Structures are given as structure tokens and as C-alpha cells.
Amino acid sequence: MPKPILRFRDGKFKILCFSDTHYNGNGASAETNPKDKDWARRPHYLPDLQGWIGGAADAVQPDLVVFCGDNVHYVSDPEAQAKAIRELLQPIADRGLPFAAVTGNHDAQQREGLSREAFMKVFAEADTSLTLTHPEGTEIGEIAGHSTYTVPIYASGTEEAAEGTVPAFNLWFFDNNNYGGEPDGSGTASDTRILWYKSLAADYAEKNGGKPIPAASFFHCPPDETYQLMRKIKGFRSFSALGHGDFDRKQWWTLDKSNPTVEGLLMEPVCCDGMKGLFRAFVEAGDMKLAMFGHDHGNTFSGVTERIRLMYCGDASMRLDGQRKQASVLTIDENTADITRERIYYFNDVAGALPECLSWTAYISNEGLQYTLRGNPLLTLRELTTATLSLLWKKAPRSVWGWMFPAKFGQ
Ligand SMILES: [Fe+2]
User: How confident is the model at residue 395 (pLDDT cuts 50, 70, 90)?
Assistant: First the structure.
């Protein structure tokens, strides 16, 4: 069966993006992972997960669905892993929707499970999948990673993508490379992902009369430049987080609201890894309008720096540890090539009330105070109390920070 060809519809193109679903195969590896965290052993209530993904797809009617990494996690057995991937994708397959996926740091993490290549092959096998384990025209292993590829979107009204047709918009997908730990995936000058991107983007621009083809990209971990959307502050305050990775772990940061393009929430440290050098390549190529990523589950903020919008997708996880279960909807305008976040959907927007086991999901947030109150009032009280104490102390110990936000750092 030929793979779907993407085109604008009535001048628009809609993408529904899920990140960090962390589907555990309904607790498939409970017995083989006795030491795993409690949530990893529990069922993920498959009907709720599929209702959430399918419900969001029905509400949005997207032209493409994207899975932005950490898609399946804590499933050890190769067969159970493949089954879990198919279960995650079932609501998309049932609706015949095209989709594309990239790997996160937790995908194919289990040593006894599928290799990263075999793992991504399961994503690639579905009839409507546009996922590739390596870029077209290259050999496996030539480009570092196992989910680095590009998908073109053609102009409205084009019947077929004839040979040589220039796309109206390009979507780029990059393997996070398991924290950059693989050869030639280090973000240095020899990073084959970056060399491949720069070369192909230049080819596209040449075919387009020297003008870069507007583009968006999807990968798992935020780039270092995400810190350009934040500013340093003295001590803890609401909606602040400590630095991480190459950034001082004792320094508090908050969103830079003097940048008028910054929107959304900072809820936990920004953990950059595995994507070094990519943003600079985007700036040089001049085609990239947006970079979408996940990894830091509570963060949803976005903002423009150096003419590129960096954007957290927000996490879609059904795990039982206080995640918000959200998905971002992007719209591309064919005339202007602008790509914007239309809205964020939450589980209870499309799939009814949160299941009983999940109903304690609660956060302190600007936009989410009302949402917070839908959670267990006792836990809301706990978080409000913690925030108040933290403000009084001006500097919250890390243990308190972790207690406030059960999402673990760098997940
Ligand atoms: Fe994650």
C-alpha cells in the first residue's frame, strides 16, 4: 500500500502532537520488572489511553499525528514492546490517519528489549505511517539515529507529488540519539544528522529558486537555546526552575516575559541533551519556523528566539504520577507559512472525566488553577501549602521541589 502524501487542505494543515505517552503495555512487564517504580508495574488502563488518543483525534481531525518520543516505556520483552506500540497506534490506525514518530530517551531503553532500529520499524510498518528509521536515499547507519527523516507537505490542489515537485512546507524529524551517546550523534561538526539536514535543506532551497522552504521540526529533548526564553532570578519563586545539564544547577530561572512571544508554563527544569548544534544549523539554513519537543513533562511554554519558535508539546502520559495528559494542536497557514499552536487539549476535554485512579492530577498553574481544583482537594491543599512555604523560605530545597512536582527531573 502506498504511503500517504500530505497536502494542505483549504489553505490549512493541522498537526496533533502527543509527547511522552510512556505507554507501558498495560503493565506487560510487571513480573519481569519487580524493581521498577510502582507506576511502571500497574496497568495503564488501555481503554482510557486509546480513548484519549482517539478522542483528541476526533476533536481535532488532524492531517497528521506526531508522537514526539518516550512513546513506549518499561516494556522489556520484544514481543510485548511491539504489541504495546501497536496498541498505542491503534486509535490512529482505526481512523486511517497519517502519523510520524521519533524516539525519546526512554524508547527502546530496556537492554533485553528491541533494538532502537527494530523498535522504530514497528512504528514504520503501519499503512498510514510516514515514520522512517533512516532518511530516504541513505543506508541504515549512514545517518546517526533511527528516526531521522523528513516529510514534505505539498500545496493544496496538487493531485500528485510529481517527480521534482517542490514541497510547500517541510517537516523534519530527528532522533534524539539516546542523549547523544551514539557515534556521530554528538552535536559536534561531525554529527551526521546535522550534516544531512544542512545539505538537504540547501538542496530544497536551490530547487525553490534559492528560497528556503519553510519548515517545522520534531525531536524529543529541548535544545540549549530554550534557555534564551528564560532569565536568571535570585532564589525560588512561583513558576521557576533550577538549571540543568550544562546550566548551573544552583541557578533559578523563570520565563522571560519581556519577550512578548513567550507563552505557556515553566513547571520543571529544562533538561537539554542530545540535540546540540541543531538549533545553530536551523538558524544558518533559514528555513525553520518551529521546533517542537517534549521530555520535561510539566513544561508547555514556547517562545521565539532568533526567529525560530521553540515549543514544548506538553506530556500525554497516562502514568499515575500527576501528569496533566495534554496534546498540542498546530496549524500551518499555507499562504503565510506561519505555524502556530491552536490550543492544547487535555484528557478530560475529549475523553470524559479522568479515570478514578488518575483523578488526583493537580497542579498549581496560571491557567490551571481551575483545572487544579478538579483534582483531589487534599492534594491541591498540599501543593498550595508547599508553594507558600517555599515562597517564605525564598529557596526551596530540592526535596520539596520534587515533592511539589511528582514528575521526576529529566523524564
Ligand atoms: Fe518522558
Answer: very low
CA of 21 to the centre of ligand 1 (A): 7
Q: What is the pLDDT of residues 293-307, one digit of tens each?
A: 999 988 899 999 999
- Contact present, 189 and 284 (Cβ < 8 Å): no
Residue with more model confidence, 248 or 261: 261
70 C-alpha to center of ligand 1: Å? 5
For residue 23, how far is its CA from the centre of ligand 1 (angstroms)?
10
C-alpha 210 – ligand 1 centre gap (Å): 39
Q: Distance, CA 402 to ligand 1 centroid (Å)?
A: 16
Closest CA to 367 of 294, 269, 301, 293: 301
How far, in Å, is the centroid of ligand 1 from the Cα of 356?
23
Kindly tell me if the per-residue pLDDT of 408 is higher than 90.
Answer: no
Strand order of the sheet with strand 240-242? 230-233, 252-255, 240-242
Could you tell me the distance, in angstroms and rounded to a whole number, from the CA of residue 338 to the centre of ligand 1?
A: 28
If we measure between CA atoms, which residue out of 349, 256, 234 comes closest to residue 310? Answer: 256
How far does residue 28's CA lie from ligand 1's centre (Å)? Answer: 19
Q: Please state, as a whole number, how many other Cβ atoms lie within 10 Å of the Cβ of residue 46.
A: 17
How does pLDDT run across 305-364, given as a tens digit for each residue? 999 999 999 989 876 544 568 899 999 999 999 999 999 988 878 877 665 444 433 343
- The CATH code of domain 6-358 reads 3.60.21.10
CA 156 to ligand 1 centroid distance, Å:
35
Strands 99-101 and 302-305: unpaired
Picking from 334, 325, 282, the residue whose alpha carbon sits closest to that of residue 300 is 325
Task: Give the DSSP H or E segment for 154.
Answer: strand 149-154
Rounded mean pLDDT of the chain?
82
190-202 confidence digits (pLDDT tens): 788 999 999 999 9
User: Separation of 374 CA from ligand 1 center, angstroms?
Assistant: 24
CA of 165 to the centre of ligand 1 (A): 37
What is the Å distance from ligand 1's center to 19 Cα?
8
pLDDT score of 327 = 94
